[in-house]
Each structure stands twice: as C-alpha cells, then as structure tokens.
Amino acid sequence: MSVVVIVRFEVADLAAAKQSLSNNAALLAEITEDAKAQGAQHHRFTQNSGGLVVIDEWDSAESFQGFFDGNDKIAQVTATAGVQGPPSIEFLQPVEAAGTF
C-alpha cells in the first residue's frame, strides 16, 4: 500500500519562495520525472503560514527517502527558495474506509 508524505519547508519570505518555484520550472520538471521513475504517484505544492508544504503519495516511505536524501537537484531548489533549515517529513498510512475518494 502507498504512503502519503508531508514535507514542510520553512521559508523567510513565502512570496519569494513561490517566485523561485516559478523561476525553476525546468529543474522542477526534471525532479518530477526522477520522482515518478522512483515511485512517486502524486505530488502537490501547498503553502501554510510558515512556508511551503509538499503533499506526495509514494509507493513506499523507503522509495521517497531514497529519492529525497542527498538529492542535489532538490537541494538547489530549496536553497534558491530560501528554505530555512531541514524540512519536517511525516509519513502517513492511508486508511481504507467508506466515503474515501
């Protein structure tokens, strides 16, 4: 069964971070293709009051960690986005229940 991965990146300036994502569209497209090849099923950038939040679905937590840990492309994007410190990463196990879609 897949896992949902929540990654929280704190940034000093949210508007500048979002602009950086736009400016790095080609690199983000490369990262997306790499992620799909390694087990990513869904990916979404969101925001909260402290920064950027990524919500992913992966085939396993191990696949995500293998992709994410030490990834130079991700390091480049997060540096240019002004990410402050290491991200917070949470793995959630889906629950099959009526009404889920």
List keywords for this structure.
4-stranded antiparallel sheet, 101 residues, Alpha-Beta Plaits
Structural commentary:
The chain is α+β, with helices and mostly antiparallel strands and 101 residues long. It has one domain: Alpha-Beta Plaits, CATH 3.30.70.100. The chain is built from four helices and four strands, in the order βααββααβ. The protein has a four-stranded antiparallel sheet with strand order 2-3-1-4. The longest helix has 14 residues, at 25-38. The radius of gyration is 14 Å and the shape is globular. The two termini are 15 Å apart. The mean pLDDT is 96. This is Antibiotic biosynthesis monooxygenase. InterPro entries: Dimeric_a/b-barrel.
Architecture blueprint of SSEs:
Layout: E1 3-10, H1 14-23, H2 25-38, E2 40-48, E3 51-58, H3 61-68, H4 72-80, E4 88-92
Tell me the total number of β-strands.
4
Question: Can you tell me the number of structural domains?
Answer: 1
Please report which band the strand proportion falls in: under 5%, 5-15%, 15-25%, 25-35%, 35-45% or over 45%. Answer: 25-35%
SS content category: alpha+beta
> Order of SSEs, N→C?
EHHEEHHE
Strand order of the largest sheet: 2-3-1-4
Q: What do the pLDDT scores average to? A: 96
In the CATH hierarchy, what is the class? Alpha Beta
Q: Which fold name fills CATH's third level, the topology?
A: Alpha-Beta Plaits
Major sheet size, sense and barrel closure: 4 strands, antiparallel
**CATH hierarchy: architecture:** 2-Layer Sandwich
